[in-house]
Amino acid sequence: MSILKRIPLVSTTSIGLDIGTHSIKFVKLKRKGGSCELVSYGVVPISRLKGLPAEEQSVEISNMLRGLLKGEKAGVNIFAAVSGPEVIMKSIVVPRVTKAEFRPTVLWASKKHLQIPLEETNFGYKILGEIEDGKIIKNEVMIVAATKRLINDLIGLFGKSGLKVAGISVPSFAFWNLLKSTKTDPRTIAWIDIGAKSTTIAIFQDNILRLSREILTAGDSINESIKSLSSLFDEEAFSDEEVERLKKECSISKQEGRPEVVISITPVIVRLISEIERSFSSHQQSHPGSSIEKIYLAGGTAMLKGLPETMRERLGVDVEVIKLFENIKIGLSSMERAMLSKLAPIFSVATGLALETGEGINLLPTEVKKQMAMARLVPIVRVSALSLVAILCLLYLYTSVQVKDNRKLLNIWTNVQTLTRTAFYSKQMKERMDRIRRMKETLQRLERREIIDPAILKEITDIVPRSIALTSLSIARPEESKIQEKAEQKKVSVGQGPDRKAVLLQMEGTVYGKEESLEVDLAQFMIALNSSPFLRDPKLLFRERNVLYGKNVLEFGLSCDLDLR
Q1: Fewer CB within 10 A of the end CB, N or C, for the chain?
Q2: Under DSSP, is residue 129 helix (H, G, I), strand (E, B) or coil?
């Protein structure tokens, strides 16, 4: 996966899926080289499932996923994330060792930082760089561990939906992917995603993740504080819809909206900011001289009016709600763009996951990753094998044609000499002489023909583009042409047939690639053949659209006159 994404001309499609406690968000991105286009997005609320048993919730969510991603092709990569108390992230320092010793060293050093046995987790790590500990150079490593139960539950959820997940990461690494695609001037920034159940704090220094922390003060904490007002004022309990309306009406910095709502949520905001301050202090202790220069806010609660201004005032740091799709092309209608602009902060995790290149953390079980790696190699091996077979067939045909023609020439010459010496004026002998005359004419034609130069084979190999795979190649006269018979069987009229007196190079093949460019690639191939010094007048014998391995392809047959002069 990661290799393909580094090739500028290869297009890949990825889906980032953020399954939260309040809603499911997905973002579909199409990437080619350095460009990135948002193809589609979606959000489905799931807060109504809170009261259901875990098994029923799993069934409902799997049904929602099936509906949300209905129609997606099997080749699309889907990335998800896990978070919560069953996920542990921590930056540790390990000695510099050889490459073979590095993973065992990280595993050994990680054991004292994990509250659960290492063998009960899916484990991953990312090397952050080198640091100086005293006078000794060591490696700083970010370790990530999630319980196998949590990972298996998520894989099972996708299985019920009929989907396969290509990678499981964590929100902080999704933010890291976003940061790599965003131009940021400050050297040290904090990325704060305020979700419904938890808030993720990720601190980056020089575009490297240095600290990741998850706290429980989040959107639900604010909602609960608003709901508590109903008991204080003897009102009916607020519904979730009323709570969201009250939140949108109030402003923390300007004291707008119902005063009691502002008063009730202010302590929650203060507690949230205090937790963020503690995370900043922890980072500064482990990285002396480093201070947070800018804060990016994401998540649903980031849209709370006045929150950026309040945080800026209390923390003394510039605060900005993330402009998520600033560097991503939006392939949507104007109405969809407007809706996306309003909801952009809630798609931060999903977008970061869709930007995954395979260089981050993948908590999938090792055996699943091996199966996926083998599955990705199958098309490459298949294409390589077909190319090798085509080359071998070409060499075999070239050799066999020469041997066959030389034997035929020798046999004809021997027959001509024998029949000439024994010719008589009888009717029977006249008929034989007619046959001899015809054989002489064949001999003369064959004697005038030169042996085909190997340069022709090299020319064909150079002309064939990557998007075309030849499946058959032969040299014959029109009366021996099997491809011409095949074209007649298909009953596809593509112009006049080949010259009956010419020596033909005939080929069959398959055009791969985008559906709209199949005809163009075939036409360019025929133009290239016509430009060759050895080939002329290429004629299309047949073409037929087909589906191969789930991809639209164009099968064809054509012939060229061989210029043997």
Answers
A1: C
A2: strand
* Residue 297, CA atoms < 13 Å, CB-side half-sphere: 23
Helix (H, G, I), strand (E, B) or coil at 341: helix
CA pair distance 267, 273, nearest whole angstrom: 10
* Separation of alpha carbons 82 and 384, rounded Å: 38
Say which residues have a Cβ less than 8 Å from residue 121's Cβ, sequence separation at least 6.
88, 114, 145, 146, 147, 148
Which helix or strand (DSSP H or E) is residue 149 part of? helix 148-160
Minimum mean pLDDT among 139-143, 414-418, 539-543: which range?
A: 414-418
Query: For 453-565, CATH number?
Result: 3.30.70
CA dihedral 68, 72, 78, 83 (to 10 degrees): 10
The backbone torsions φ and ψ at residue 71, rounded to the nearest 5 degrees and listed phi first, read: 90, -5
CB atoms within 10 A of CB 370: 11
Q: HEC string of 481-546?
A: CHHHHHHHHHCCCCCCCCCCCCCEEEEEEEECCCHHHHHHHHHHHHHHHHCCCCEEEEEEEEEEEE
* Class of the domain covering 184-325: alpha beta
In Å, how far from its chain's centre is CA 32? 10
* Domain layout of the chain by residue ranges: 1-127+135-182+332-364, 184-325, 379-449, 453-565
Q: Which two tokens stand for residue 139?
A: 């490696």
Tell me the C-alpha distance between 454 and 460, whole Å: 10
317-346 burial by CB neighbour count: b if 16+ within 10 A, else e? bebebbebbeebeeebeeeeeeebeeebbb
- Whole-model pTM above 0.70? no
Q: Mean of the pLDDT values across residues 273-278?
A: 92
Q: Is the pLDDT of residue 302 over 70?
A: yes
Q: Which residues pair with 92 in a beta bridge?
A: 141
Query: Are the folds of 1-127+135-182+332-364 and 453-565 the same?
Result: no
Considering the domain 1-127+135-182+332-364 in this protein, what is its CATH number?
3.30.420.380
Two tokens, residue 522: 């075939």
The distance from CA 375 to its chain's CA centroid, rounded to whole angstroms, is: 14
Alpha carbons within 13 angstroms on the beta-carbon side of residue 385 total: 6
Task: Give residues with Cβ within 8 angstroms of 256, minimum separation 6.
Answer: 249, 250, 262, 305, 306
Beta-carbon count within 10 A of 127 CB: 12
pLDDT tens, residue by residue, 177-220: 888 877 666 788 899 999 888 899 999 988 889 889 999 998 88
3 state SS for 153-169? HHHHHHHHCCCCCCEEE
Cβ-count burial of 200 within 10 angstroms (0-12 exposed, 13-18 middle, 19+ buried)?
buried
Compute the distance between CA of residue 110 and CA of residue 142 in angstroms, rounded to an integer.
10
Q: Could you give the strand order of the β-sheet that contains 77-81, starting from the edge strand earlier in sequence?
A: 167-169, 77-81, 11-19, 23-32, 35-45, 329-330
Give the chain's mean pLDDT.
79
Nearest to 341 by CA among 352, 350, 332: 332
CA gap 472, 468 in Å, rounded: 12
Sheet holding 199-205, edge to edge: 208-215, 199-205, 188-194, 294-298, 318-321
CA pair distance 440, 172, nearest whole angstrom: 83
Q: What is the pLDDT of residue 2?
A: 41
